[in-house]
Amino acid sequence: MSETAALCVLGTDMSLDEDTRWLEWVTKQFGNIAGDDKEIDLDEFKTALKVKESFFAERFFELFDSDGSRSISLDELLKALNLLIHGSKTDKLRFLFQVYDVDGQKNADISLIHLSNPDSTGSGSIDPDELRTVLKSCLRESAISLPEEKLDDLTLALFESADKDNSGSITFEELKAELETFPEVMENLTISAANWLKPPEMEQKKRNTPRYLTRAYWQNNSRKLLFLCFYCLINVLLFIMAMLQHAPGGIWLMLAKGCGTCLDLNCTFIMVLMLRRCLTWLRATWVVRVLPLDQNILLHHIVGYAILIFTIGHTMAHVMNFGRLIQMDGRYHMWEYLLTTRPGIGWIYGTASITGVVLQVLICLMVVCSSTFVRRSGHFEVFYWTHLSYVWVWILLIVHCANFWKWFVVPGIVFIVEKLVGIAVSRMSGQYIIEVNLLPSKVTHLVIKRPPFFHFKPGDFIYINIPVIAKYEWHPFTISSAPEQQDIMWLHVRSMGQWTNRLYEYFQSESQTTSTKRLTASLRNRHHQTQTLVTTHPSNHRFCNIKCYVDGPYGTPTRQIFASEHAVLIGAGIGITPFASILQSIIYRMRKQNCPNCSYSWCATIKDSEMNLRKVDFIWINRDQKSFEWFVSLLTKLEMDQADEEPEGRFLEMHMYMTSALSKNDMKAIGLQMALDLLAKKEKRDSITGLRTRTQPGRPEWRKVRGRMPVSEEKKGKVHVFYCGSPALAKVIKAHCEQFGFSFYKENF
Hints:
749 residues; 31 helices; 6-stranded parallel sheet; alpha/beta
């Protein structure tokens, strides 16, 4: 952390002792920040605050600068912070008032040092123009873009609500009365004011007990943990049996054979975890309640690392054993043992050592190139092509080890058959991308013509190959349309790597689209039916007829959503795609019917033995405002379907969060959030997304989110949380689910 940034950083809920220690720390750091003149000027102050808008830095600086010297001394800083930290709610409200009273500093010598005197505000007031200036700066600070007319509406909404006497200006008492109507704001005013000034990303992490040691973790992960225990036990037993069998050969040979036998098991088991079609089929059976099928990706990672460890152990033990043999007879050198067939080690022409060295290199390369920093850094192709070397690994293992084929034969045949079926189906059913929409944040929306025999369930994913982008590459993406849409299916592809960027740029660079005369009239009608669920811009919309191949569909943990009673769907960014499919499927399953002879309407739920849902909470977390445009029309449709329902009786509840927007406990956002709340109540829709659901600023406070789900009162059944998004957020949500006793499922492929 830089010294300037550190000046304005405080943890939340600071105690008196913490405040004192922090002030001591500020004193110590002040000398380094201020430099030789022992003063902080405006530029240094702006750097320390790390604000996007200079408006707030300048206002804070003017209020902290009690003597008007255009610089802040240590004495001025400590007096200001002491007053804000230990001051009353009124003191802090007065500080907020002075920030908003832009002309107040010009009309009177009002600075933070005078806040202890209630009369210091004098006749200061906030007029509409001042309020508009503040709200405009708040919008920029929160990275929210709204038309000038909407800014005027926000200003008038807050001004008319606060100006109780219709005098044309807001006094301190009126602002205080208005703030008191927002309990969350008043609650945040009890937090030390230095917490208002800190950048949101600098919050200190609380030290909690590691979740792996909690009872809730063991209860909620019982199937996975039992299976891992069984897996470890099998490896230990095989290791011991192999060591005992080769005891006459010495300790190094015993270790090598023990690791080798475990490699036979793991190099076969990792293949079983790749049988996607078989796993998809098993998810529909009772086996899913016994085995952790939804953890196949995690198990694949664990087994991969186990193979690396056993491979290194196996190699090192053989090298040590070769050293022992050299000392005993000295017929061969070490390089001959490792790189030639002269010693005759191995069941096929003495090639065990050579194949072992090649296997060691290939396995290490596969593990390194499959690491997160490679896959998530825009180099997915490196992971993809190096991982295809698993074919050579299995071939070399058969040559290297006399017993491996016995482990390999049954799962190997199943794997080959599954691959051949996938290739045959994908090539026989060559499909076409018939429509493309380029959405904000470099998201490519593909509309693919769906063959009649292609059946999938909400949340499933496919592998797609588009020869014009890359002839031999297959990439996995979640289907974002509902199975009930018979003629088409959707994919939403976020540009994050080389292939996805090439896909976006390919359609972006096309100056002319494929002639629509080649498309049938039914395609136009189909587009007209689906456009109500997608927001598009004419310049970013293309009709086309591009060949593609699809392998799948494959099941994911989200298949269990309709078997749940109370489902909480959490999507982060483009992680909404599986839930878009699910939410659209809900529209079809819960579609309302109207009587042609009267005004009576009812919900004709499709009869489905898997449809046990009684309540759905949908949470969408986005970084910026434009990302909501991906599916805003779909969400609007969902809200319209429930418009006549009472809030407590709604089947679906939506919660939107925008992380770039400053939260309500940030002083720079208090006025804006109040204005957004007031205007949303007046217009009955959110100014950011246009939905009825109010977009909340910042990240979700999961305890409060949990408090808004009165599960016991509604009796909606046990809560199952389904998540798709960044792995870092997944860990946070999973920890909270374990604490609350919720089942957690992570979309992963």
